[in-house]
Design brief:
Layout lengths: L7 H4 L2 H7 L3 E9 L2 E8 L2 E9 L5 E6 L9 H20 L7 H8 L2 H14 L1 H11 L8 H15 L8 H24 L4 H20 L6 H18 L4 H13 L10 H13 L3 H22 L4 H14 L16 H13 L3 H14 L7 H14 L2 H15 L2 H10 L3 H19 L4 H13 L3 H7 L6 H6 L1 H18 L6 H5 L2 H18 L2 H14 L7 H8 L1
Antiparallel strand pairs: 1-2, 2-3, 3-4
Length: 561
């Protein structure tokens, strides 16, 4: 069920709702329709939180700078409660607001008295002065990038002359003033998006905001959220442009200017392109943008003789989504420390039957990685590659590394068959047996099944009986019951009856109904080889000895029978 503004109380746990109600939500600002940014205070800590909803009230995006890894944390919950109250108040208020005392006074006072009062207020309040100038400057001004940068910085400095006093209230005033001051610039840009001077003005506007944020090291996301909201608000109008030449020129400014003269890649330019690609409903336009991005990537490599990870991943990911990556995979190579990207690239190479190249990349990444946990998927890729190429020796070598990860019995015997160095093989086998037995005690189902099947294939049935412990699933016991009973039925019975109840493997992995069916089959096998007059006393003895802990599920089931 999707989380919405109307059903969140049914989905979010009651304890979380109660705890979130104790948080304080401050300066909640609707950056664009249904996109809310706010500060949420939890005791002495304050967090930047945002929630975005679609027109149906579904929560489609949310962020919080707390370290909680849950999908919906305490602070997001607090903000959605606040938004719900806001929307309820709006519905209750409706359009029946009464004329207040201020409106009555405005009717009574003279024009001269009003001017005097306004002059005094302006002299005492810098932010009011800026609002006044912005609102009543009616002339249509032609802006330049330098003027935009200067005026954007000026607003910040006038409202917050001392960055030590940059509290959240003042930052909100800055953003509100920027909104009013920047709107004419945005409108001019949208009226002529294919004009380079208008693009430069919009870029200067966003740069001015981010520069103020970076220079003063403000501990808030409110300014960057404002800059991002400007770009997102421009994506929809551009996607609906009818003139193809205007569209191509307007979008071309973003693709061509993704990186600067010093090689810096601009994340906000990429964000805009990403947003625009989502908005477009024409594949031909998307493919034109992708073609431009490919050209930009090639130009970057030509100029700077290297791969920029962010630009490379950006072009690669959009190719995967909006084009046929199989036609372009040769453009890309693995990147250091970028395992997700590397794995996707190698997967594409394997699907395109570029096995030698995929093998080369896998081995390179394994060699580069300093933490072996990142090698796992590369090992499995190599397993697939060597199988396809029919390279049994290399496959056996890679399976030696893979076996402790998935305990595949067929892989074990493949290694034993194809590794000719007996010393190496024996050393590896001993390590697998020693480490694997420890793993079985961590309730690793694959390892447990592996050791039972290995003992069965090697005809070490007595050892199989000794393997039965609290972690052994009853379905495995049932699978090998007959062969174990044939070797030593008395020891098998003793082990089964004394098997510890804890940690109850069955509760984690199979239903009560499935467990009952398995236990019934074990019961039927037991009564065939043990008379009830011998079985029942043993069960009662076990039950008495288990006074301080419950007997295992099999004993309970047999007693009920």
């Amino acid at each position: 069920m999707e989380l919405t503004i109307s059903n969140f109380k049914k989905i979010i746990p009651a304890l979380l709702l109660k705890a979130a109600g104790k948080c304080e939500v401050r300066e909640c600002d609707e950056m664009e329709i249904n996109y809310f940014v706010s500060y949420v205070d939890e005791k002495n800590e304050s967090y930047d939180v945002s929630i975005k909803m679609n027109t149906d009230g579904n929560i489609i995006e949310s962020t919080c700078d707390c370290k909680n890894t849950e999908i919906f944390c305490l602070h997001k919950t607090a903000l959605i409660i606040h938004i719900s109250k806001l929307k309820t108040e709006i519905k209750k208020t409706g359009k029946t607001k009464k004329q207040n005392q201020v409106l009555n006074l405005l009717e009574e006072i003279s024009f001269e008295d009003l001017k005097v009062w306004v002059r005094n207020v302006i002299e005492k309040n810098v932010d009011f002065e800026l609002y006044f100038i912005q609102h009543f400057s009616k002339e249509q001004k032609q802006y330049t990038p330098d003027e935009i940068l200067k005026s954007t910085a000026q607003v910040f400095k006038k409202i917050i002359p001392n960055k030590r006093k940059a509290d959240l209230t003042l930052i909100k005033k800055v953003v509100d003033l920027w909104k009013e001051m920047h709107q004419p610039i945005i409108d001019q840009y949208l009226s002529k998006p294919d004009q380079i001077d208008q693009f430069k003005n919009l870029t200067a506007l966003i740069s001015g905001c981010l520069k103020a944020d970076h220079e003063h090291f403000l501990n808030t996301k409110k300014i960057s959220a404002y800059a991002i909201s400007i770009l997102k608000s421009c994506a929809d109008p551009l996607s609906n442009l009818q003139d193809e030449n205007v569209f191509e020129n307007a979008v071309g400014f973003y693709t061509i200017n993704v990186f600067g003269m010093d090689g810096e890649v601009y994340s906000l330019q990429m964000l805009f392109i990403e947003e625009l690609l989502k908005k477009l409903n024409q594949d031909t336009r998307r493919k034109k943008i992708i073609t431009q991005l490919i050209s930009v990537l090639k130009e970057y490599r030509k100029q700077f003789k290297n791969n920029n990870p962010e630009l490379t991943k950006f072009v690669f990911n959009n190719l995967c989504i909006y084009d046929d990556i199989n036609n372009h995979y040769k453009l890309f190579e693995p990147l250091r420390w970028e395992n997700e990207y590397n794995l996707n690239l190698i997967s594409i190479l394997i699907n395109s039957k570029e096995f030698e190249l995929a093998k080369k990349y896998c081995l390179e990444q394994i060699n580069y990685n300093t933490n072996t946990k990142y090698d796992v998927q590369y090992y499995f890729f190599l397993k697939e590659i060597y199988k396809t190429l029919g390279d049994d020796y290399s496959l056996a070598e890679i399976l030696m590394s893979i076996l402790p990860l998935d305990y595949n019995i067929n892989d074990y015997f493949f290694v034993m068959k194809h590794i000719k160095d007996e010393t190496l093989k024996e050393k590896w086998r001993n390590r697998i047996l020693q480490e694997g037995r420890l793993v079985t005690k961590t309730n690793n189902e694959k390892a447990i099944k592996f050791f039972f099947e290995l003992a069965f294939r090697e005809n070490k049935i007595q050892k199989m009986i000794s393997y039965i412990n609290a972690y052994t699933p009853y379905d495995i016991i049932l699978q090998y019951f007959d062969v174990m009973a044939t070797i030593d039925k008395s020891e098998l019975l003793r082990v089964l009856l004394n098997r510890s109840r804890w940690p109850s493997y069955e509760k984690q992995n199979i239903s009560k109904e499935e467990l009952s069916k398995i236990l019934e089959q074990i019961y039927q096998k037991l009564i065939k080889i043990f008379p009830l007059n011998l079985l029942m006393p043993a069960l009662k003895k076990i039950s008495k000895e288990s006074y301080y802990s419950k007997p295992n599920q099999l004993v309970e089931y047999l007693l009920e029978k």
